[in-house]
Amino acid sequence: MSVSTQIDAVFARQFQAEVHEAYQRQGSKLRPTVRSKTGVTGTSTFFPKVGKGVAAAKTRHGSVPVMNLEHAQVECILQDYYAGDWIDRLDELKTNIDERGVVANAGAYALGRKTDELIIAALDTATQEAVGTSTGTTDADGLTKEKVLLAFEMMGAAEVPDDGGRFAVVGWKQWSQLLQIEEFASSEYVGDDALPWKGSQAKRWLGALWMPHSGLTRSGALRHCYFYHRTAIGHASAAEVETDITWHGDRAAHFVANMMSQGAVLVDAFGVVRMRAAE
C-alpha cells in the first residue's frame, strides 16, 4: 500500500469522526428534547403509546381491579438523507485543522438541520393550540405572557407530567418578546441555576426548558411555537451520521458525502400545545 493511500485512509477515518462529533455537539438542537431511539433496523419503527390507568378499591379476598389500559403503537417512517460537496486539493485539509473543521462542520450542521426539520414537522401535526379571544391570546398577538400561561394551563389540564421533561421552542422574534416579560427575563425569577446550557440561549421557566430556534414553521404572518413534553415526540435513527470520501480523477477532486437515516413522529397529541404568534 502506498503512503498516499495510507494517508487517505487515516484522513477519512479522522474526518468522519470529526463530522460525527460536530453533529453530536451542535448539529441538532431539538433531538435531545424528544424521545429518541437509535439502532433501528428497517425502514420504520414503532413507539408504544399507553393510555391512563384508573385505580379502584377491591373487596376483601377479591380480585385486584384491572385497569384495562389502552395500548397503541405509532409508526415512525425513516428516510435517508445526504449532504455532500466536491473539494479540490483535499490534501490541504489533511494538514490544516481549521479548514478541515469548517468542511466537517458544514456537513454536520446540514444533517443537524434536517434532524430538526423532521422533529418540527412532527410538532406541526399537533392539534392543540393556545389561542383564545381574551387580551393577549389572539392571532393578532405575539408570544405574550397570557398566551404562554394558557399553554401552561392546557398542559396541566391534559395531565402532562411536570417531571422536568417539558420543553418549549420559540422563534427568535418570540424569544425577544419573552425577554420583555419580567418573570422570564429577570434574574429574580430565573436565576443562574435555571440556565442549564451555559453559553447558549436557553433557560428554565414554568417548569420547562425554553429555547429559540430559527427553523420553526411560519404560516402567513404566524410563527408556530411549541410547548411540549419529551415523550410526545418520537425520533428514530437507523443510521447515525456517516461520511464517505471518494476520489474522482476526472474532476481531480474528492467527493465528501455525509449521510444518515432518521425519522420523527407525533406520539401523543395531548403532550404538545402550539402557540401561534404574530410575526
Biggest sheet record: 6 strands, mixed
Compressed to H and E, one letter per element, the order equals HEEEEHHHEHHEEEEEEE
Radius of gyration: 23 Å
Q: What distance separates the N and C termini?
A: 60 Å
Q: Give the class from helix and strand content and strand pairing.
A: alpha+beta
Number of helices: 6
Rounded mean pLDDT is 84
Oligomerization: single chain
InterPro entries: Phage_capsid_2
Pfam family, one: Phage_capsid_2
Protein name: Phage major capsid protein
Description:
This is Phage major capsid protein. The protein is α+β, with helices and mostly antiparallel strands. It has two domains: 133 residues, Major capsid protein gp5 (Major capsid protein gp5 fold); 117 residues, 2-Layer Sandwich (hypothetical protein PF0899 fold). The chain is built from six helices and twelve strands. The strands form three sheets. Strands 5, 6, 7, 8, 9 and 12 form a six-stranded mixed sheet that branches. Helix 1 crosses helix 3. The N terminus is likely disordered.
